[in-house]
Amino acid sequence: QVQLVESGGGLVQPGGSLRLSCAASGISFSNYAMAWYRQAPGKQRERVAVIGSGGTTAYADSVNGRFTISRDNTKNTVYLQMNSLKSEDTAVYYCSARADYWGQGTQVTVFS
């Protein structure tokens, strides 16, 4: 059974940082491209960052330079380091394995 379990969300003030983690099980993790998506209330889900099996990364323009995606294949875990957070980053953040499998999401709220 495939499981993706996110953690690390919470409340933070603008300009602050958070690191999200997503622990995967039930898949051959190192062979999967992993991504972080987010969905704000009333908006469509958007891809924030992706990291390929070989480590290549790509980011949405809205987070480029502020967010960093990384992976640790020894721990079957993908991370999203979020710096310089803005109120518009408020959303539920989801981890995905090749868009085939999804986590349950973790809430990130940026407030002043």
Question: Could you please describe the fold and organization of this structure?
Answer:
The mean pLDDT is 97. The protein has strands at residues 3-7, 10-12, 18-25, 34-39, 46-51, 57-59, 67-72, 77-82, 91-97, 101-102, 106-110. The protein has 112 residues and is an all-beta fold. The strands form two sheets. Strands 2, 4, 5, 6, 9, 10 and 11 form a seven-stranded mixed beta sheet that branches. A four-stranded antiparallel beta sheet has the order 1-3-8-7, with no helix packed on it. The radius of gyration is 13 Å and the shape is globular. Helix content is 0%, strand content 51%.
Topology:
Blueprint: E1 3-7, E2 10-12, E3 18-25, E4 34-39, E5 46-51, E6 57-59, E7 67-72, E8 77-82, E9 91-97, E10 101-102, E11 106-110
Parallel strand pairs: 2-11
Antiparallel strand pairs: 1-3, 3-8, 4-5, 4-9, 5-6, 7-8, 9-10, 9-11
Tell me the number of helical segments per DSSP (H or I, 4 or more residues long).
Answer: 0
Estimate the strand proportion: over 45%
Compute the number of strand runs: 11
Helix content: under 10%
The rounded distance between the terminal residues' Cα atoms is 40 Å
Overall geometry comes to: globular
Mean pLDDT: 97
Largest sheet, strands/sense/barrel? 7 strands, mixed
The low-confidence parts are: none
Give Rg in angstroms. 13 Å
Class from secondary-structure proportions: mainly beta
Oligomer: single chain
